Every structure is written in structure tokens, then in C-alpha cells.
């Protein structure tokens, strides 16, 4: 049975890496292990073919093949959201239809480069939803550093109000805490229906975002067990324990958030954990050198000591 994403989405929706072999081909055996690992961490959903999934470095055929492998391995246990953002409707629409036919739980869609006005953003979503129909659940991605499109709260409200298929708002604007507060305030005032808000940026601002009304995160991190436990503690009402655990990991979270470079760190953590065979990214992607790996060793050693002081152990990465 296909699990669809909806406006009640909460917790951790992990942004999946895309494993590659040493020759740069898709590594589908590592993909199976990675899916098993993410599910074993207790994530609430998977999001594939995002920016950290190197979506722009895959062909359309590879994107569909990777989607098929992930959806088959997940086997309906959690929803799988597929990033379909593309410069034009044809590419995005074709991938949307293929993903949903394969059993995806929804799509993630960011406005494309080149939109300069609020009317253009509204028109883009009007035309795209008109093409694919209202039955496909959509995660509206707001990531200005990548899209170069800045959406006001008023525009976001309008797009959500106009399309019932938009059930999740992925909040990646930075700084964006006040934006998040305004979005929730507008809901409370009855200006539009409620949608799930999941945040990103590697979880860097996760605690503040959840305090301001986020339902969880749709992001990646090399030790996803931490994100899962932090969200569970927060939703159980133990906010201080959630803060304390997050604080212990913060140096590693910060290190992984280096623009352009962080993907190599995340993949190295997955490799050390035996999840993926190599930490390779596709050219011209980043790679760690010996100094980078030693730096990561130091961060992990410090994290292990801090966790020991808290009566905890480092889950599995780099053990």
C-alpha cells in the first residue's frame, strides 16, 4: 500500500544521499543498505533527489531508476517524497508521473531559477498543479539560497490556499525564524488552512524552529539517530533533554553544514558506518583529504566524550 505524505507529517523526514560506486555509477546495493539504515534509525519518511541527493548530477533515467529502487526497498513502511524540481514543466512533470506510478508518497517542488516576482511564483504553481492535477501531494520547498527565488509569507499563503495538494511547507529560508512565526500566526488567525512545516539547513536551527511551531525536519545529517531522538523528546514534552542532546552534536552539525563541502562529510559518516561502499560524490562534487578526515576524527572523539558524560554512546557512525 502506498503511504502518502499529508498535512500531519511530523518528526524526521531524512534527506537521503545518493550512493555512487567508485566509477561514478549508481550504487544500488548501497542504496538498499542505506534505506534499511534510515528506517532502522526510526525516520518518519524519506526524501530523495534533493540538493544533497545530487539531483542535478543525475540523468532523468537515473533519477527514475533510483526512485524505483528506494520505493521498492521501503515497501510502504514510510512515505517516500521525490524531489522533482527542474527548470521546466516537462522534466518535473515527467519525473512526477514516473515517481507516483512507482509508489512515491509525494513530490518536493521548488520554484525554478528566473522567477522574479510574486505573480510569477503564483503562476508557476498554478500552471504546474494544473498539469499534474490535485491528487499528487506536494512539499513546497522554500530554499532561496539555491533557487534565488524569495517568497513572501503572503505569497506562500496564497499558493497553499489555492492548491489543496500542497500539504507540507519545507522551510529553508535563512534567516527565517520570524518567517516561520508569521506562517503559524496566519494559520492561527484562520487566514489559511494548516499545513505541516518541516525545516532543513542540516538541522542547524532545529530547536528554535520547533519552538516556533515546526513539526520536525526534512533534512539530512550523518548521524540521523540524533535528529530522530531530538524530535521525539521534544514532542514528548522533554524539551530540555532535547536541547541538551542537540547541543552535544552541534559542532558536528555545524561542520557538516559547510556549503558545498558538507555532503562529503555526510557521505564519509555513512561510509564509516558501513551504510554505503564509498563516500564518492559526482564530479565536480567535494571529497575529503587526509586533513579533513583527521578533523572529522577529532570532532567524533569529542562528541563521544561529551555523550559519555551524559550517559550516552555515539550511535553507530565512526565506531
From TrEMBL:
Transmembrane segments: none annotated. Keywords: Lyase. Pyruvate binds at residue 218. It comes from the Bacteria. Pfam families: DHDPS. GO terms for molecular function: 4-hydroxy-tetrahydrodipicolinate synthase activity. InterPro entries: Aldolase_TIM (IPR013785), DapA-like (IPR002220). GO terms for cellular component: cytosol. The keyword Cell membrane does not apply. The keyword Translocase does not apply. PANTHER family: 4-HYDROXY-2-OXOGLUTARATE ALDOLASE, MITOCHONDRIAL, DIHYDRODIPICOLINATE SYNTHASE. Belongs to the DapA family. This is 4-hydroxy-tetrahydrodipicolinate synthase. It comes from Stella humosa.
Amino acid at each position: 500500500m502506498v503511504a502518502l505524505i499529508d498535512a500531519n507529517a511530523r518528526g524526521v523526514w531524512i534527506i537521503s544521499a545518493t550512493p555512487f560506486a567508485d566509477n561514478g555509477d549508481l550504487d544500488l546495493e548501497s542504496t538498499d543498505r542505506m534505506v534499511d539504515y534510515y528506517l532502522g534509525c526510526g525516520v518518519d519518511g524519506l526524501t530523495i533527489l534533493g540538493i544533497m541527493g545530487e539531483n542535478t548530477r543525475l540523468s532523468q533515467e537515473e533519477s527514475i531508476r533510483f526512485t524505483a529502487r528506494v520505493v521498492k526497498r521501503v515497501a510502504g513502511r514510510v512515505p517516500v517524497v521525490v524531489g522533482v524540481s527542474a527548470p521546466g514543466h516537462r522534466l518535473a512533470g515527467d519525473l512526477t508521473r514516473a515517481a507516483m506510478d512507482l509508489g512515491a508518497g509525494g513530490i518536493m517542488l521548488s520554484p525554478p531559477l528566473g522567477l522574479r516576482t510574486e505573480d510569477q511564483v503564483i503562476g508557476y504553481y498554478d500552471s504546474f498543479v494544473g498539469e499534474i492535477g490535485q491528487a499528487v501531494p506536494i512539499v513546497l520547498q522554500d530554499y532561496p539560497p539555491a533557487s534565488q527565488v524569495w517568497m513572501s509569507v503572503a505569497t506562500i499563503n496564497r499558493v497553499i490556499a489555492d492548491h489543496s495538494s500542497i500539504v507540507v511547507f519545507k522551510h529553508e529560508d535563512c534567516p527565517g525564524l520570524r518567517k516561520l512565526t508569521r506562517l503559524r500566526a496566519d494559520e492561527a488567525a484562520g487566514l489559511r488552512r494548516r499545513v505541516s512545516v518541516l525545516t532543513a539547513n542540516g538541522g542547524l536551527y532545529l530547536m528554535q524552529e520547533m519552538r516556533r511551531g515546526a513539526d520536525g525536519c526534512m533534512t539530512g545529517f550523518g548521524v540521523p539517530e540524533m535528529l530522530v531522538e531530538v524530535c521525539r523528546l521534544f514532542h514528548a514534552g522533554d524539551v530540555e533533554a532535547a536541547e541538551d542532546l542537540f547541543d552535544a552534536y552541534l559542532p558536528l552539525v555545524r561542520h557538516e553544514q559547510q556549503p558545498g563541502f558538507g555532503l562529503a562529510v555526510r557521505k564519509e559518516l555513512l561510509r564509516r558506518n558501513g551504510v554505503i561502499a564509498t563516500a564518492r560524490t559526482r564530479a565536480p562534487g567535494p571529497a575529503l583529504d587526509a586533513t579533513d578526515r583527521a578533523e572529522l576524527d577529532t570532532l567524533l572523539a569529542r562528541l563521544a566524550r561529551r555523550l559519555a558524560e551524559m550517559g550516552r554512546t555515539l550511535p553507530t557512525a565512526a565506531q
